[in-house]
Amino acid sequence: MKEADNFFEKVYQVARQIPFGKVTSYGAIAKYLGAARSARMVGWAMNNASSQREEIHAHRVVNRKGLLTGKHHFSGTNVMQQLLESEGISVIDHQIQDFEKVFWDPIKELPEIF
DNA sequence: ACCATGACGTTTC
DNA sequence: CGAAACGCCATGG
User: Fold this and answer.
1) Is residue A94 within 8 Å of residue A81, measured between CB atoms?
2) What is the pLDDT of residue A3?
């Protein structure tokens, strides 16, 4: 374990930039960081997000299908869904409804963080 | 150094 | 159209 690498840090930054009521996918973030083939690494970064002092909106980050695959990484089981529903996002059976409507692409919305 | 795993994604059957 | 396999890359054993 090392301190947050630049890659991880970027992931966290993007995750924090996700606006209220919006979500994004690991692949989108990975691609934005230039590591489209390392989508899994993004998930890994999220796992390591617990090490981050700042709270990462991991619940706003889902896979490309809009499925809350990483929900069991949260404290409880329905915590992630509750958070998303609190933001006006409909979640049924760990699946985000109208995913394309609430989808927030960093590449399209953010030219570049730095 | 090699094998196994994982909060993913794309292609193929 | 749905399920399975493969690919990618980093971390752990």
Assistant:
1) yes
2) 57
Q: What is the DSSP string of A20-50?
A: TT-BEEHHHHHHHTT-GGGHHHHHHHHHHGG
In whole angstroms, B13 C1' to A64 CA is: 22
A61 three-state secondary structure: strand
pLDDT at A1 over 80: no
Q: Report the candidate in A28, A15, A92 with the shortest Cα–Cα distance to residue A64.
A: A28
User: CA–C1' distance A37–B6 (Å)?
Assistant: 14
What value does the mean pLDDT take over residues A43-51? 89
**DSSP output for A92-107:** ETTEETTHHHHB--HH
The more confident residue out of A112 and A95 is A95
CB A47 within 8 A of CB A8: no
**For A4 and C7, how far is CA from C1' in angstroms?**
26
pLDDT per position as a tens digit, A60-78 = 999 999 999 988 888 877 8
